Amino acid sequence: MKLVLTTEQQELRQAVRGFLAAASPLPAVRAAMESEGGHDPEVYRRINGELGLSGLIVPEEHGGSGAGYAELAVVLEETGAALLPGPFLATTLAAILLRETGDKELLPGIADGTTVATVVLDGNRALNGAEADVVLSIDGDRVRALRGGERTALTTLDPTRRQALVEPGGDVVAASAEGVARARDLFAVAVAAEQLGVLRASLEAIVAYGKVRVAFNRFIGSYQGVKHRLADMHCKLEQAESIVRHAAWAADEAPEELASAAALAQVYVGRACFEVARDSLLLHGGIGFTWEHDAHLFYKRAKADEVLLGPPRIHRARLADLLEL
Amino acid sequence: MDLEDYRQRARAWLEANAPGDRPEGAPDESGVAAAKAFMAKLYDAGYSGITWPQQWGGQGLTQAEERAFAAEAARFTLPTYVFSIGLGMCGPTLVDLGTDEQRGRFIRPLLRGEEIWCQLFSEPGAGSDVAALQTRATATDGGWVVDGQKVWTSVAQHADWGLLLTRTDVEVPKHKGLTMFVVDMHAPGVTVRPLRDMTGRAHFNEIFFDGVHIPAENLVGQVGDGWSCAVTTLLHERLSISSGVGMGGQKDNPVAFDALRTTVDTGDPVVRDQLVELYVRSRALALFNQRLAQETKAGIFPGARGSAAKLLLAELTMFQADLATSLAGPEAVAHPAEGGYGGGLANAISLAPAMALGGGTNEIMRNIVGERVLNLPPEPRTDKNVPFKDLKTSGGLPS
């Protein structure tokens, strides 16, 4: 079991973190979310080009770098922490599904950044469904792909990432019962990695505020009423990170452990992420309730992520089944 | 020898040598004798002090071997309770801070179970605020004389040696006038009295020091540097508690997930979901502890993050005992004289608060995580720059 990042993974983290801090800081996130397309195409050109993130997990023979899910988790933690707007997660979920089911046709376009893809989730919803070039849907053990089709934009709680109602169907591009099952677990791991980033950034924001905000002639972080809640939030971060590293390791190295590790990741990290984002907002006081402050963006992303793959109870029920309770 | 060989040899050894009975917390004299005999076998087989320096009697191996052995040992309940303070706290402190003479004298007998150790920090007036302690050590010819009282001392009734924190200077601020010693628990003037706790048993003791002489060579670290020595011990304490060193596994714990799943009705969806919650909390902490262990091996010292693990363990301990008794219902609180299932649950709910109090309360753990991990500003302190003799005590001002 590998729960600690390798030197290469730490370098990947620094590269993505440094890039996003410079190219997509929170003021740029706000500008992007209010723009017509919902994201900054220039940022995506550089993410896909300079950093090669669109091809990160695409096998080398299809033009990607063939990295593992542990590397993907490192990247998603950073895009989550930065609240990166746009279809990065959508295309990543599509890449996971295609890689696991052995597609050859669509992966090269995803790897080189020319194809924006998404996957139909429950209720014909899809992340970034209005702007995706290709909509993938799971039909039994087959994967179908549709270019075009009906797209109806939805109004989302989370202003940093869009969703749409889409039409499932199209040509069968790959088929594998095992691949589809694995892909569903890997979606849970990928979302949990993003949630870990949202959790971490929410905690960092309120810890920083606790060191500068003064009330009653003291920094608010010095009060035990605040400090003890931040300590509890840190405990959630430590456990969430451990669970995500384990799930990503299982995805790469221990397929027999993946299903339960993935269900655990959604059950624990999904809830912890929302709770920390909520408490971060609350501890900011009234300013946290304003549109201008960023706390609500993290709060809304956390809630959107918590229910992205279905109501949280389905993950708890799946975990109970896997534990044979 | 590769790791898999090591693991298989450890398994074979444990199957041949681990005793079958579950030890009931602090053992009596015959239990201690049996525990010592087991510890000697464990040491002679090379499984005590796996990562400790070879020079002082350890095996000089890595965390990988330690973890491999711990993974095998988790299937057994080993009678290591009376050695847990020495192995988890006193020994590591001496390895870090002791003189070569002290390491040479004390480490090997500690690892072999020939000598039992206790830790003497807390006092009736110095619990969370341990630097407020008042036990005095006064310099004398060839050493020191100690007078005072300690409390909450686990396994002291069996201990041969104690790691003792004393006040050697009342003219300087509280943290600056402390000094650490090794004290002989059999020395004249040491009185050990068991304290009956809420479980009805005596898990710990109160200790009285009445003119106890300590030779100069038993000084640990420097005179006046006792606080930083104590911080070293407490770091080891929290890490050892959270990682379960010498604490036995969850194997025989009737309120842990593995036991509970066999005793409750998981056909009830509410019960089933409550068990999922227990699994999630248990697994989250287990993975965090494994990550800390891997980081330690990679050279990242967890430091104050061990306090987060200890806090989480305290909360999990309370949660699972609370859940198990609630799931069981009336039989958890009224059981036949011979104990049985209900007796196990009653014991668990009685014992549960211990983890949230011993080794630092949950509130102290949260202060440590807040101030040393998150670097939040401290509470304003009125006691840091004042000579100790001028500070308040709980009974009023010292005379």
UniProtKB/TrEMBL annotation, chain A:
GO terms for molecular function: acyl-CoA dehydrogenase activity; flavin adenine dinucleotide binding. Residues 6-105 form the Acyl-CoA dehydrogenase/oxidase N-terminal domain. Its cofactor is FAD. The keyword Flavoprotein applies. Residues 189-321 form the Acyl-CoA dehydrogenase/oxidase C-terminal domain. It holds the Pfam family Acyl-CoA_dh_1. The keyword NADP does not apply. Keywords: FAD, Flavoprotein, Oxidoreductase. Belongs to the acyl-CoA dehydrogenase family. This is Acyl-CoA dehydrogenase. It comes from Planobispora takensis.
Automatic annotation (TrEMBL), chain B:
This is Acyl-CoA dehydrogenase. Pfam families: Acyl-CoA_dh_1, Acyl-CoA_dh_M, Acyl-CoA_dh_N. Belongs to the acyl-CoA dehydrogenase family. Residues 380-392 have a biased composition (Basic and acidic residues). GO terms for cellular component: plasma membrane. Residues 4-114 form the Acyl-CoA dehydrogenase/oxidase N-terminal domain. The keyword Ligase does not apply. Residues 118-212 form the Acyl-CoA oxidase/dehydrogenase middle domain. It comes from Planobispora takensis. Residues 376-399 are annotated as: Disordered. GO terms for molecular function: flavin adenine dinucleotide binding; oxidoreductase activity, acting on the CH-CH group of donors. SUPFAM superfamilies: Acyl-CoA dehydrogenase C-terminal domain-like, Acyl-CoA dehydrogenase NM domain-like. Keywords: FAD, Flavoprotein, Oxidoreductase. Residues 224-374 form the Acyl-CoA dehydrogenase/oxidase C-terminal domain. Its cofactor is FAD.
